[in-house]
Amino acid sequence: MWRGLWTLAAQAARGPRRLCTRRSSGAAAPGSGATIFALSSGQGRCGIAVIRTSGPSSGHALRILTAARDLPPARHASLRLLSDPRSGEPLDRALVLWFPGPRSFTGEDCVEFHVHGGPAVVSGVLQALGSVPGLRPAEAGEFTRRAFANGKLNLTEVEGLADLIHAETEAQRRQALRQLDGELGHLCRGWAETLTKALAHVEAYIDFGEDDNLEEGVLEQGGSTWWGRKTPISPQRLPSLSLFACLLSPTADIEVRALEVALGAHLRDARRGQRLRSGAHVVVTGPPNAGKSSLVNLLSRKPVSIVSPEPGTTRDVLETPVDLAGFPVLLSDTAGLREGVGPVEQEGVRRARERLEQADLILAMLDASDLASPSSCNFLATVVASVGAQSPSDSSQRLLLVLNKSDLLSPEGPGPRPDLPPHLLLSCLTGEGLDGLLEALRKELAAVCGDPSTGSPLLTRARHQHHLQGCLDALSHYKPSKDLALAAEALRVARGHLTRLTGGGGTEEILDIIFRDFCVGK
Amino acid sequence: MFYLRGCGRWVAASFTKQQFPLVRLSSDSAAPRTPHFDVIVIGGGHAGTEAATAAARCGSRTLLLTHRVDTIGQMSCNPSFGGIGKGHLMREVDALDGLCSRICDQSGVHYKVLNRRKGPAVWGLRAQIDRKLYKQNMQKEILNTPLLTVQEGAVEDLILTEPEPEHTGKCRVSGVVLVDGSTVYAESVILTTGTFLRGMIVIGLEMHPAGRLGDQPSIGLAQTLEKLGFVVGRLKTGTPPRIAKDSINFSILNKQTPDNPSVPFSFTNETVWIKPEDQLPCYLTYTNPRVDEIVLNNLHLNSHVKETTRGPRYCPSIESKVLRFPNRLHQVWLEPEGMDSDLIYPQGLSMTLPTELQEKMITCIRGLEKAKVIQPGYGVQYDYLDPRQITPSLETHLVQRLFFAGQINGTTGYEEAAAQGVIAGINASLRVSRKPPFVVSRTEGYIGVLIDDLTTLGTSEPYRMFTSRVEFRLSLRPDNADIRLTLRGYKDAGCVSQQRYEGACWMKSSLEEGISVLKSIEFSSSKWKNLIPEVSISTSRSLPVRALDVLKYEEVDMDSLAKAVPEPLKKYTKCRELAERLKIEATYESVLFHQLQEIKGVQQDEALQLPKDIDYLTIRDVSLSHEVREKLHFSRPQTIGAASRIPGVTPAAIINLLRFVKTTQQRQAAMNESPKTDQCLRNADRLQERQL
Known about the structure:
The structure holds two protein chains of two kinds.
Chain A: H1 5-13, E1 35-39, E2 48-54, H2 58-66, E3 78-83, E4 90-99, E5 110-116, H3 119-130, E6 135-137, H4 142-149, H5 161-180, H6 183-208, H7 217-222, H8 241-269, E7 280-285, H9 292-300, E8 318-324, E9 327-333, H10 343-358, E10 361-367, H11 374-389, E11 398-404, E12 424-425, H12 434-450, H13 457-475, H14 484-502, H15 507-517
Parallel strand pairs in A: 1-6, 7-9, 7-10, 10-11, 11-12
Antiparallel strand pairs in A: 1-2, 2-5, 3-4, 4-5, 8-9
Helix pairs in contact in A: 3-13, 6-8, 6-14, 6-15, 8-13, 13-14
Chain B: E1 10-13, E2 36-42, H1 46-57, E3 62-66, E4 80-82, H2 86-95, H3 100-107, E5 108-114, E6 124-129, H4 131-143, E7 148-152, E8 155-161, E9 171-178, E10 183-191, E11 200-203, E12 206-209, H5 220-228, E13 232-239, E14 242-244, E15 254-256, E16 282-286, H6 289-297, H7 303-306, H8 318-324, E17 331-336, E18 343-347, H9 355-362, E19 373-375, E20 378-385, E21 399-400, E22 402-404, H10 414-432, H11 446-457, H12 481-493, H13 498-520, E23 522-523, H14 525-531, E24 545-546, H15 547-551, H16 558-564, H17 566-569, H18 576-606, H19 626-635, H20 640-644, H21 651-673, H22 675-691
Parallel strand pairs in B: 2-3, 2-10, 3-7, 9-21, 10-22
Antiparallel strand pairs in B: 1-7, 4-6, 5-6, 8-9, 9-10, 11-12, 11-20, 13-20, 14-18, 14-19, 15-16, 16-17, 17-18, 23-24
């Protein structure tokens, strides 16, 4: 009976508004053991990356990727050439291990691919796995959950599972936010909106078209131009319903077909799509003129940001990839947080806050000589306190509080305020305290990056592709001319895939649109 | 108004094989003994009648208490049953041997299946019903139900006793007190009071207490429930005026004729009582700008519209339609109220304007220029109890053996009420015989979706069934309600007659056999094209095609298939229903396979029971945030599946709950091995609780 539990948390992870599981029914067969895959080594620089699968199709996937008729001997490392099943293109020469269930980590059939660690190879293998029918990217903590479900972990071992799932969910959420922050996100949300509206209109037509005098507005809402007249002709309930069915379908049809084209084009384009910003996201934030840009320049050892004594110099988010203590890091310099300045800087502040949401690690910066100022107090009360207030298990977002300009403090004078949370002293000017900061950063980054599968951008991209492809496949089943319930089902499945990427997706959302757009009533 | 409230008249009881506890009426008993029943049902509406008969079918000696026997089976609002989603519910009620579908097959005057062209999964069986006939047939059925006694009387209070220790709840109901002070005892009590809890009728600016036009509200009961700690909300609904039939000029209006042949609601009927040509038509007319004007000019005279109480977003009054969607023409369906009724029900004109303005508005509508309003439209405001306070078996968390069904739970509609009534009746009876509750999952039926939505999410507007609420819409169809529920109803609830059970078993095995035969017949596509020329099959396919796949084509049915391949398919065309159902199964076959996988997943989650006595606010073994604790505490989900559907319950919380369930299960398994320690442990647990 425990086999089903992963579906639950996966389902709950999809958001509280889901009334019931609408899983990616178009793709895998969930509930009864879809096969999952994930990158299970961390993001730190490494020679070898480990990709794992778990589930009944693991053996199948292994055979497909290695183009072999037989599976390698169980629990023995074998060297195999992996190639993309769609193109036949070789991906990597890798060690593969085959663990038939139940003697495996999760208790199910498992495969491990030990591939060379470059992002291109890892990404290639993940995408190849995603193209195998029955395989899908793992949800947060899903491997552990399956192990738990199959009795492979005892209750004490699973103690931290909820924390892990929470952390992974959060990390994946942030990673998804990063991906959705941009053109792709804009596209996805637009598609989801189109699809939700199309579905709402089809659902309205099913539920209310004949029963509730759905008024003629439905046609205009649907955008049908040549049926724009307001004459009180109502085909509902009349025998000539075919007329109405023909009228509704072109509009929904046109929108859905347009969506299909857009998705198809995007998917074909995806390989040379957006640049993956790999690595942990470290965001430097603080009130204006705390020395954030100085720190960014110091850490990246190059003049990334303009530094000036004038508050509000940095107005946009400036990001630079750096290598910190061996970990790949994307360092972002942001505008100083303050209210009531010009519109350009306000936009900068808005972007800074948005970036803060997406950060794995926050470097909160204050002017040590200016701790009593309103902007410092405000920053402490809002940003630092809100992240700090959460216990580590509540948030996997980490924060380091740095007090800059320690050179301005008089050596004998009283230290900074006693009520401050743990912090580091630094002087960007003299370099004093930099070693301490680097050591603290190393520890934090080890925690952020060492955790396998937490928001790996490669995996996120595999997820995106998987769901977009699932959406496209479902849309190809949309044939409104026939059974409308079947057509609606295709739209429901397609929308399910898109909302997995963008959030939302409950029944209420559909009903809200229906009751907003149509006068439904007896 | 003549009112028989509380007169304690035993109206009718039918006795068949078993002896009844009517001993209290027999004069030879020394002291007047208080009557004692297994189940008491309060209210004789659509929920009450189903609840009472379901309990009686399950073998419980049941008492139906109603204000007036002559209002049993009254259709207080629209003269129709069924529709899209609602028709599904009726099929499911019928699958559990409920009444309303069979009564509708005997009382309709205009049968029509909606959504005919949109696919059998969303067909909506619907009929205009003769109010008088429905009531007559319902009363006949009720008064002839074995084990069921009917009494007139208004309930003033509940009799409460110490709770049973093995169940949660702060007390237990053991009977009711009537207005005249007399008491009746029972093992379970079902409340189906509809809009009677502090009901208020509104016409224009006038408001007066009433459950329905002409009936007193229940105030004492509402106070009792509030005192017990039930969270009470307020909802509103409305009904249109009734118009004299002979004052309408039908000749200038659009006419709608019924289906030919009529499709019956009940699985047990092959046809309905009346021929299509004898059925009555409906007529369609429209509102106009003059109607908008009257509404807008008189808003100050309309307190129902001004009130903030939540009404439904759908089925709104003409006032809210005009306000929300101005400058539109709205449809008005003129529906017959019965074969020999002089009244017409203008569906779409629900309103609460002052009486004289109602007639003024009606007469500016086409065809109604000379219309006479016989009874004004009115609004009703009433109390409902937050349905998150009941379990999926419809028993309340607070009071043991007390069940709620119908509008009291915040639903609207006869069908929604009937569906809850059956479930409440079954469970009240099972509770008496100490059997496990009968819960329909949302993977099994619309009834399950309805009750799961109510008990886990609650509702803030009158809840109505829509097919869009149902995730597994293609699996939960009107045609297969018997396969889904009749077998379970027979085995788990005992509410289904032997005959119906055997019929459903036969149908199930015939369908399974038919599908496997259709799967086994395989020909090349060109051979199929030769056999059935009208099929639009592509002959370029090289793989053999199964007969089941050919049956998926719109232009193919079992008859044409059997003509092409007489052996072995001919025998499946003999039963029309079987042939039609095979066609439907074929249509959805590919999607159903996927849905079945999903359904299994959900059912696995729902098999994980959460302990009933868990106190989410104080429990220490589970690490949960305060917010999640409060949500779980209020809704008290019974399974992990239900918990995961509560908004705000996080995946991490679910894992923690799972861990807790697993620990509990292990502990219980250990206890079962050594029953003695079990008892000790339990006692120890209880002691600890007290100390806390």
